[in-house]
């Protein structure tokens, strides 16, 4: 390896930047852009830090959950997401969304190789309380907040491998560090007691014990579009929901639409969206077939929707405590607990899904989003903020606007 990259992480920020600029042949303007978006806190947070990477942050309006109205902070680069979230929330606001946390535990596993399963099972059953004590003592602060180890189970994975599954109440934290510390302590204790061979000890992102459920009802009047009656649109949305149960290809896109809302808000609150993503998609495939997470049905009173999914997040600790913007966003949403945040994330997922399905089964997704998409096409091809309105107006006249059209329009505008 080229020696200049060795111990890169030990170099100062300026040294790292100079090396990257030289290797990538960056212009002075580009280097300046990296260097001016350089917050000291982020430099401490990750290794080999180069620059902050700002994404647009906005708020969706109109979300009503359990009788409380929320502003939902969302961080997203996708132009239509916040508009659609607000629109879906509004349709659901007349009757409001009902939300409930089903469970809020974080699970982890200790994988053992070559253990005698029966002996291990007997030992774990007989020493359950001591196992909990070892876990809790490794992280005593969790007990102050009423959390701690709650459940242990043992599963045979094969003739060779066994999993000991520990479930922990993380209080208001996400609990990843907490459960990993506990699992390592319990592993050490098991090795002392039984001389077992531990392959690994780690939380599981399966998160089936972090479930939240939301439901809502949209009146037919809210759904009418053009020549289609509200009832007809409701039936089409119910059909779309059914297709997502039948076909994994459609289910993946259906769920991506739900995650457009959930991820954007999860990022705004400083949460680990990869953990949410992996949990959600594993849950969607729990029957052995990947299916849509939400379901919509026509009833006498309107279109009824429900969504149940795992949302493993924390309200304190990790990035939620490091990023000032995450704290401000919690205040904008007036959130008071992790459970309330789980409800809000699931609800915005339901609203996002409703707006996407309504657009898809009526005028199609492109029409409503056209202005926003043309705006981002114009920006991507060099239009300045003040040029945007004129460029977008011109692009609207073109059948299939492309980068070439933007360049042409800009050329004429700048003459
Ligand atoms: C686009 O980001 C999301 C949608 O494709 C979701 C869906 O098809 O349900 C519109």
Automatic annotation (TrEMBL):
It holds the Pfam family HMG-CoA_red. SUPFAM superfamilies: NAD-binding domain of HMG-CoA reductase (SSF55035), Substrate-binding domain of HMG-CoA reductase (SSF56542). The keyword Oxidoreductase applies. InterPro entries: HMG_CoA_Rdtase, HMG_CoA_Rdtase_bac-typ, HMG_CoA_Rdtase_cat_sf, HMG_CoA_Rdtase_CS, HMG_CoA_Rdtase_NAD(P)-bd_sf, HMG_CoA_Rdtase_sub-bd_dom_sf. It catalyses: (R)-mevalonate + 2 NAD(+) + CoA = (3S)-3-hydroxy-3-methylglutaryl-CoA + 2 NADH + 2 H(+). Keywords: NAD, Oxidoreductase. Pathway: Metabolic intermediate metabolism; (R)-mevalonate degradation; (S)-3-hydroxy-3-methylglutaryl-CoA from (R)-mevalonate: step 1/1. Coiled coil: none annotated. Its EC number is 1.1.1.88. Belongs to the HMG-CoA reductase family. This is 3-hydroxy-3-methylglutaryl coenzyme A reductase.
